[in-house]
Amino acid sequence: MQTIQFPGAHSALDPAGPQATAIKAWLWDPMYAAAVVTFVLVVAALLWAAFRRRPSGEPSTDLRHERGLTRAVGAATVVTVLVIFAVLILDGVVGHASTGAPANALRVTVTGHQWWWEVVYPGHSADEVATTANEIHVPVGRPVVIELRSTDVIHSLWVPSLGPKRDLIPGRTNTLRLQADRAGVYRGQCAEFCGAQHAKMAFTVVAEPPARFAEWLSNQRASPAPPADSLSQRGQQVFLNGSCPLCHAVAGTRAGGNIGPDLSHFASRSTIAAGTRPNTLGNLSGWIVDPQSMKPGTKMPPNELSPADLHALTTYLESLR
Amino acid sequence: MSSTIPAPAPPQDGRAATTVAEVVPQLEETWRHEPGLLGWIRSVDHKRIGTRYFITAFVFFLLAGLEAAVMRAQLARPENTLLGPDAYNQFFTMHGVTMMFMFAVPVMDASKLYLVPLMIGARNVAFPRLNAYGYWVLLIGGLFLYTAFFLNTGPDAGWFNYVPLASSQFSPTRRVDVWAQAITFTEISSLVAAVEIIVTVFKCRAPGMTLDKMPLLVWAMLVQSFMVLFAMPWVATASQFIAMDRLVHTHFFDVALGGDAILWQHLFWFFGHPEVYIIFVPALGFVSSIVSTFTRRQIFGYPAMVLSLIATAVLGFGLWVHHMFATGLPQLGESFFTAASLTIAIPSGVQIFCWIATIWSGRPRITVPMLWVLGFVVTFIIGGFTGVMIASVPFDQQVHDTYFIVAHFHYVLIGGAVFPLFGAMYYWFPKVTGRMLSESLGRWHFWLFFIGVNLTFFPMHQLGFEGMPRRVYTYLPETGWGPLNQLASLGAATIFVSVLLFLINVARSLRAGSPATRDPWGAATLEWAAASPPRPYNFAFIPVVKDLGPLWTFPGQLPAVTGIRTDVRDVLLTTLIGARPDSRHRHPKPTIWPFMAGIATGIFFITLVFTPWGFVIGVPLLTAAFIGWAWPRGQDHREQMSVEAESALGVSPEVPA
Amino acid sequence: MTSTPMELRPVASVADLPTTTFGHRSIAWWGTIGFIIIEGTTLFICAMSYLYLRVTVGQWAPAYAPLPDLGVPAVQVALMVASNVPMVLVDRAARRLDLTAVRSGMVIMSLLVVVMCVLRGFELAALNVRWDENAYATAAWAILVSHGTLLLVEALETLAQTALMFNRRLEQRDISAIADGALYWYFMTSVWVPLAAIAFLTPYVAGP
User: Fold this and answer.
1) Which helix (DSSP H) or strand (DSSP E) does residue B51 occupy?
2) Where residue C174 falls among pLDDT bands split at 50, 70, 90?
């Protein structure tokens, strides 16, 4: 397993990429400042209007006062219109930063499932395709274009530190352009209510230097090494002879299920159950035996295993780097 | 000789009366409320029906508030176990459905149905039986929804019920069908109330109350009623579409067979965005009424205020796609909706500036209703600012579906509608009940509520930026969202206490509050001319107005018209533009048929939750109920044989037997 | 317990105003307009949903389903348009308080509306698809069935009003209801023309 940071950075106010930076610097910051100033002005005007000293008696309907008030209201309206216009301009400026698909972009396809993320890196041929789950690696400083699909309901992919979200809609393909300018681990979470375990459908984006990323990708493209020690080998047998292959796939074995996440390089991932827990032996054991306790409603059934079998199985899975 | 034969006495129908004392005894008899439970069910009095609507809506407010309290208790700590995901998903859905459909719109319906006829000098709404029917439909829908909830079959796919999650494939239980039909009841009731108000305002205004002499509250209710007419059918149709997809296998939203998941979002939000203005615009009417009375002047800039209401309503129909900015729609289209969503801030701004100008130039008295108005401005504008921010597509694409949005809409809805509503309650409670609420308890209520709301919802802006999505039953401790959630939950507890104080205030005042005079606040509008509470017929004679503030212009005695019958429930209709007396119209007596029609409607839609045979059962029942309702009883002999006045039509009045 | 209302000083009398009016002077007419707006919006939504699915997804007839027949639909459209002639005559008779003409006219309208309902059944068959086959079928059925609901309501209202006209205790104001029913009839028949065009002719229009 990876010992990288859990759960990863996740703040739109601490942007790590150009999209999120543009949104914070050119939209949030100026609009927030304008909002604070306007709030103070309006509340001050309101309180002054309500509590200022004035002569008692019937209110004056003096035409001069009414004209003065008309000018004041008119001026305030004009200022409002100008502020609105300024926001419109800022919006136009930032809008263009988040679109487009540059030629040097890395392409990734993410397919949403209830309640996990299937991540596929395309290649020039079938055995160059890398399939993983719940973790997206990207090279620092290079634009990434993510193609978004869904097999069941609407999900939404969102990495607050990096940029805007985009929905994954059955029957359509959406694209999202992101980029990480700082190496690091960034947390994302599904942002469209998708059923029972919407709350625990997170994922991790790992931004690393281009050389490290290339190394990671070629490892993901290759089949995992066969289990070397006897415990892992026993674990592989437990895996293949149990119900696991019905839903899960491991490249290089006869396990080819595609209902659940691909486990070929399971041990290279930092979390399990879509970002619900760090990927450790203990957490994994708990998950396999009773997934419902960690994610009630999840589609993975509980598995009754002897302690020895469980130990072997988890050892095997943690060998799939 | 002929001089010894007495001339026939003029008909004893009150039309010749010239003093109030002559008409009141017969009016009291003709318009009296029938006693007992049966009389209560058969009532067609807009004030009784409005009161029912109000109490029912407020009960739903309390239920939805309790749901929120449980949700906040669950979210106060990470990985809390108070509610599991299945229960939580029902709770947050029920909270949204109850607040939006069972409380917010019905409470505005209640207010307009009660206040508008009084404010325009009318005796009742235009269609008294339809009004009664609208209430029964709401009640049955609400009971149905909550029965389902208590049986663990409450809707659980969110108050906007997106497909494909809400399709039968991914929501196989009856929960979504309950949603689809329960909201149908509320749609019918709000459409009924809208038709009532539009026709009442158009045709039943006091003589002299031309459109430019209508109180701003009446304008607000009129504009809002038009919005309801054009917006409600969208959700009504959409919910029947999803019901049919689930019940009889149509394919509106079925991606596999040519349907589209995004169609649902367009249909829903075309309703959903105007819906929030349907809730907000009446509250603007409350604010204008309160500010005018407690500054002792008419609201500054009446034409600008009216145009702002209309602009808000019209623009409100052009914003809906801003709820869909993350779905991947074409950029050019999105830009239009950004511009429209920004523009709608302008009329709201104009109104706030006009109110401030009014307060500045008037003689403000900071009573409890005015406190709520001040609180409204402060709270609502915070939501308004975040609203301007999320009009921008890239910014919205960061915060959409996060707690930032939860913060935004609670600020505008609570600030923009609930604050004015509480203000309205303190303001009109004396008129409705004849008693005053306690001012000091009112101040405690206000301050605790104001503090509680800000404590609950302000931290949520930050939570949204830190990555917390909406509709999550729990979150990991490692996210660091715990402390702000705890603060929000503390705020929710504060709100809970403040509402409790309000309930205590109401209970005590109903029993032993100081008696209210006809006009305890020194207000200008016609409802304050009626007794507190008003008699069933509202006014002994229909008042005549010549400006916006009849009670300030004619202190002590209002001009009025006579000539309306007192032996039947006669009302006056006036012309649309000039408000000139045009005709008299006979209103129905109390009747059981609206209730029967409500029952038939209930059977129809509830059966449809379970089987399409609901159509076959329901249609004959509804037909029978409406025939029973509309079939004339020939009660008024004089109308059957009437010769007088029909000559105005220039035709033979004889109707052969 | 109640306080004293404000004093009122009579300045004019409305005793001589009529009690039966027609058209925009009558509140039932306005109520009819209100329901026309509601139901018109609903029909508009069905039409828009049909066109949205056609343009956005596009799995439509003739590629994904058979073309509809046009014979029966054409008859229905013609019948609906033509029926406005007797309806106008009945409307005018009602405003003249000519009960005899109203009675016979309403019997004719009752027959017409029953025929229209029967034809609606045949129009559904003319679509040549069942509602549950695909989204195109669903959208087409939605237009016909939602307008069919209007037709059903109009049928029940027309039959009930016809029966009412033979009631011995008829009041003058009840005849005003005939004019409101006529207004509804004009709406129901004219709105069908664009709806029928959308539902039956769109598959014949080639497009993306």
Assistant:
1) helix B46-75
2) confident
**pLDDT in the model for residue A3:** 59
How far B620 CA lies from chain A's nearest CA (Å)? 39
Of B301, B342, B479, the CB nearest to A10: B479
B328 vs A84, A167, A190: nearest CB = A167
Q: How far is CA C91 from its chain centroid?
A: 15
CB–CB contact A59 B378 (8 Å):
no
CA distance A81 to chain B (A): 7
Please indicate if any CB of chain B lies within 8 Å of the CB of A45.
Answer: yes
Q: How many domains does chain C have?
A: 1
Give the number of B-C residue pairs with CB atoms closer than 8 Å: 259
Q: Which two tokens stand for residue B387?
A: 């609203």
Identity of residue A182: R
Count the helices and strands in chain B (H runs, E runs).
22, 4
Residue C110 counted as domain residue? yes
Structural domain boundaries enclosing C62:
35-204
Could you give all domains of chain A from N- to C-terminal order, each with its CATH number? 230-318 (2.60.40.420)
What is the percentage of chain C residues whose pLDDT exceeds 90?
85
CB contact under 8 A, C4 and B518: yes
Q: Is C138 within 8 Å of B556 when comparing Cβ atoms?
A: no
On whether ipTM exceeds 0.90, the answer is yes
| C-alpha pair distances (Å), B251 with each of A207, B167, B233, C133 | 42, 10, 20, 8
Nearest CA to B559 out of C14, A59, C8 is that of C8
Contact B126 C31 (CB under 8 A): yes
Q: Which residues pair with B583 in a beta bridge?
A: B573
Those of residues 128-167 in C touching chain B at CB distance below 8 A are 131-139, 141-142, 146, 152, 156, 160, 164, 167
Peptide bond into B430 cis (omega under 30): no
Q: Which residues of C touch B653 (CB under 8 A)?
A: 97, 172
Q: Find the CB nearest B646 among C99, C169, C172.
A: C172
- Indicate whether C170 belongs to any domain: yes
Q: Do B469 and A43 touch (CB under 8 A)?
A: no
Please report residues of B whose CB lies closer than 8 A to that of A87.
342, 388-389, 391-392
Q: Does A67 touch chain B (CB under 8 A)?
A: no
Task: Residue C116: give its domain's CATH number.
Answer: 1.20.120.80
Residue C19 in any domain: the answer is no
Residue of C49, C156, C174 lying closest to B263 (CB–CB): C49
Handedness of CA B246, B251, B255, B260 (dihedral sign): negative
| Cβ contact B563:C15 at 8 Å | yes
Q: From CA A205, how far away is CA A192, in angstroms rounded?
A: 19
**Digitized pLDDT (tens) for each residue of chain A, 321 residues in all:** 455 788 899 999 999 999 999 999 999 999 999 999 999 999 999 999 999 988 777 766 667 788 899 999 999 999 999 999 999 999 988 876 666 778 899 999 999 999 999 999 998 887 789 999 999 999 999 999 999 999 999 999 999 999 999 999 999 999 999 999 999 999 999 999 999 999 999 999 999 999 999 999 999 999 999 999 999 999 999 999 999 999 999 999 999 999 999 999 999 999 999 999 999 999 999 999 999 999 999 999 999 999 999 999 999 999 999
Domain assignment of residue C190, yes or no: yes
pLDDT for the residue B9: 53
C19: nearest CB among B518, B543, B585 = B585
Which tokens is B302 given?
A: 């009446």
Q: What is the CA radius of gyration of chain A?
A: 27
List chain C residues with CB under 8 Å of B657.
Answer: 168
Q: What is the pLDDT of residue B641?
A: 38
pLDDT tens-digit readout, B397-411:
999 999 999 999 999
Chains that touch C (3 or more CB pairs under 8 A): B
